[in-house]
Amino acid sequence: MLKLTPLLLAMVYGYVMFRFSAWRSARELDAKSTALAAPSLVPLLDQLAAALEVARIKVHVYEVPQINGLATHDGRIFITRGFLDRHIKGEVSAEELTSVIAHELGHVALGHAKTRMNDFFGQNAMRSVLAMVLNRYTFGFGGWVADRIMSLHRAGLSRADEFEADEYAAALLTKAGIGTAPLTSLFEKLEHWSAETSQPVPAWFMSHPKPGDRIKAIQKLEKRWAKASDR
Predict the structure, then answer these.
(1) Among 103, 120, 208, 226, who pairs with 169 as Cys (CB 3.0-4.6 Å)?
(2) Considering the chain, what is the average pLDDT of its residues?
(3) Euclidean distance between CA atoms 205 and 203, whole angstroms
(4) In the 8-state DSSP scheme, what is residue 77?
């Protein structure tokens, strides 16, 4: 029993961190979000809703300056104030911002947010176990090594989710009559903005795939659809 105590403690720690992270994230989103009010997006969101056969799509604005979109485990969709401001300034079109919302709808439909929240519990427990084991051989650096290993693992899962959500968004935008062009043009802009504001990060450490890789994936998807329609 004593041999299992560190593992049990790691699992308890992982669960506590999971619950705390979920509570903190939900509290911050509730405190810093408002309902989206952008008339230019209304007809496009109506097109998405019609394609999904739902009455309406509700979107919230997360009041932070970063450029991002996100979906929560309870199915809520957010775009950041930074993204909306780019649209208001004319740097992001209504169609491009709608493609972000379609992407986040993909995360909800594919269950990514719920899966990642559940994974967080297991990953924290695994990180604690790895740190304890590695500390025996790395002279106190076990925690750092475990953090790097789990960061690689989480980044890989996140990139896979992003590609899946892109595919969902491409299909939804096509069905809604908007097409995939806004999605790929947005990725081109994101790649340009990233080059302007940050240092390059190795792809395997990025939680999101490189925009260029995402564009190529959508182009391959369209070619596959074209071949299927010709049959």
Answers:
(1) 103
(2) 79
(3) 5
(4) E
The contacts of residue 46 (CB under 8 Å, 6+ apart) are 56
Residue 78 has φ and ψ, to the nearest 5°, of -130, 145
Smallest CA-to-CA distance from 72 within 84, 81, 62 is with 62
Does residue 155 surpass a pLDDT of 90? no
Torsion-angle region of 31 (φ positive above 0: left; ψ -120 to 50: alpha; else: beta): alpha
Residue range 161-169: average pLDDT? 92
Q: How far is CA 34 from CA 30, 66, 78, 97, 220, in A?
A: 8, 16, 9, 17, 37
| pLDDT above 90: residue 119 | no
Q: What are phi and psi of 65, to 5 degrees?
A: -80, -15
d(CA 82, CA 184): 19
Q: What is the pLDDT of residue 203?
A: 46
> Three-state SS across 133-187?
HHHCCCCCCHHHHHHHHHHHHHHHHHHHHHHHHHHHHHHHHHHCCCCCHHHHHHH
pLDDT-derived band at 159, boundaries 50, 70, 90: confident
Chain mean position to CA 191: 16
Q: Find where tokens 């995360």 sit.
A: 107
* 3-state DSSP percent of the chain in helix, strand and coil, to 5: 70, 5, 20
> Which single residue is written with the structure tokens 């790097």?
148
In total, the chain counts a number of residues equal to 231
Q: How far apart are CA 147 and CA 135, in angstroms?
A: 12
